[in-house]
Automatic annotation (TrEMBL):
This is Tryptophan--tRNA ligase, cytoplasmic. It comes from the Eukaryota. Gene3D superfamilies: HUPs, Tyrosyl-Transfer RNA Synthetase. Belongs to the class-I aminoacyl-tRNA synthetase family. PROSITE patterns: AA_TRNA_LIGASE_I. Its EC number is 6.1.1.2. It comes from Homalodisca liturata.
Length: 412
């Protein structure tokens, strides 16, 4: 099969909306919309995107291979889907190298709780597997899509890097880079970008990402930039000329980039990247709405004070409770739509306590005010601890993380 015919077949299979106009859920790298109060139907999304569900068999094997307990975000189905995770576990069993890759689009100087999720899991994966991690800051993407200047996006990337570093990454095994800066620093990165660009036609990228005739050409070429870090020779100072496997933890809306990458990579002599997909972090107003930096009441930001967190949860967190206390005691609350409960699924690590909360709220024994109080008590210390760690991240530390250099991989 030719490259052209192969990728054409792939493009037809992976078009985001699959030609179905009646799909309630819209999921692409820039838009997530659902008409259901419980949010996106992830089982349908797995079928549409052609990924695999993270099942108990995989989790059991994971613990056996690593000898360490599985993260609660995976136990609870927050990370719910994967591509080729068994291949990564095979490499771990065989003692063969691979690396991690994740990213962040810096569109504002204040990240919110939802932005932490891929980094929390990436930190855990780095610790469990003891492998290098590269983190891409797509300041170029945000310049193309947002009303921001180049200089503003570069500054935001550096500010976001401080929040990322505050998650506790190992500086000896982590490289953070801004696209605007790194493309000029590493010819190998740009060479891989161009190789990918040459492998995907204009019509194919329109089919994959839904670009229109009025979109600027920078948007059309950008997917190759997000794909390139999945090719290990984009980081010659870490991996040399080795063509290694890559594992990418991300929200599932980023999957179109990496479905494209998975088709192109073997044609360029690289292994297909593996993926771990997370669900979307809901806005305070409910899973049907979207968090927005322009509306601070849609999310809990990492810069919020305890008072702001308390006010946001009490005033804006969508409740699954009943209209009256009497009705709530009789019928119980709906955990599947209650935002306080949903946030606790992300941040309350104690499984038994979460199970008790679910039982008591569903039965009516726990009221909405009590559930919100528990959420406030849970996330406030997390945000405060993050703020303390971030305050300790100096400009010198940021520069250290963002300087191309050998990582611990080179010593293995």
């Amino acid at each position: 099969m030719s490259v052209e015919s192969g990728i054409q077949d792939f493009t037809e299979k992976m078009t985001l909306n699959d030609g179905k106009e009646d799909e309630d859920d819209v999921v692409d790298p820039w838009n997530v919309q659902s008409k259901n109060k419980t949010g996106v139907d992830y089982d349908k999304l797995i079928k549409r995107f052609g990924s695999s569900k993270i099942d108990q068999e995989l989790l059991t094997r994971w613990e056996k291979v690593t000898g360490k307990p599985i993260h609660h975000l995976m136990r609870r189905g927050i990370f719910f889907s994967h591509r080729d995770m068994h291949t990564i576990l095979n490499l771990k069993e065989q003692g063969k190298p691979f690396y991690l890759y994740t990213g962040r689009g810096p569109s504002s100087d204040a990240m919110h709780l939802g932005h932490l999720i891929p980094f929390i899991v990436s930190k855990w994966l780095q610790d469990v597997f003891d492998v290098p991690l590269v983190i891409q800051l797509t300041d170029d993407e945000k310049f193309l899509w947002k009303d921001l200047t180049v200089e503003e996006t570069i500054k935001l990337a550096r500010e976001n890097a401080k929040d990322i570093i505050a998650c506790g990454f190992d500086v000896e095994n982590t490289f953070i880079f801004s696209d605007f800066n790194y493309i000029g620093q590493c010819p190998g990165f740009y060479q891989n970008i161009v190789r990918i660009q040459k492998s995907v036609t204009f019509n194919q990228v329109k089919g994959i990402f839904g670009f229109g005739d009025s979109d600027v050409i920078g948007k059309i070429s950008f997917p190759a930039t997000q794909a390139a870090p999945a090719l290990s020779t984009s980081f010659p100072f870490i991996f040399g000329a080795k063509k290694l496997n890559c594992l990418i933890p991300c929200a599932i809306d980023q999957d179109p980039y990496f479905r494209m990458t998975r088709d192109v990579a073997p044609r360029l002599g690289f292994p297909k990247p593996a993926l771990l997909h997370s669900v979307f972090f809901p806005a305070l107003q409910g899973a049907e709405t979207k968090m927005s930096a322009s509306d601070p009441n849609t999310a809990i930001f990492l810069t919020d004070t305890p008072k702001q967190i308390k006010n946001k949860v009490n005033k804006h967190a969508f409740s699954g409770g009943r209209d009256t206390i009497e009705e709530h005691r009789e019928k119980g609350g709906n955990c599947s739509v209650d935002i306080s409960y949903q946030y606790l699924r992300f941040f309350l690590e104690d499984d038994e306590k979460l199970k008790t909360v679910e039982q008591e709220y569903s039965s009516g024994a726990m009221l909405t005010g009590e559930l919100k109080k528990l959420l406030i008590e849970t996330v406030t210390p997390i945000v405060q601890a993050h703020q303390q760690r971030r305050a300790a991240v100096s400009e010198e530390v940021v520069t250290q993380f963002m300087t191309p250099r050998p990582l611990r991989f080179m010593n293995q």
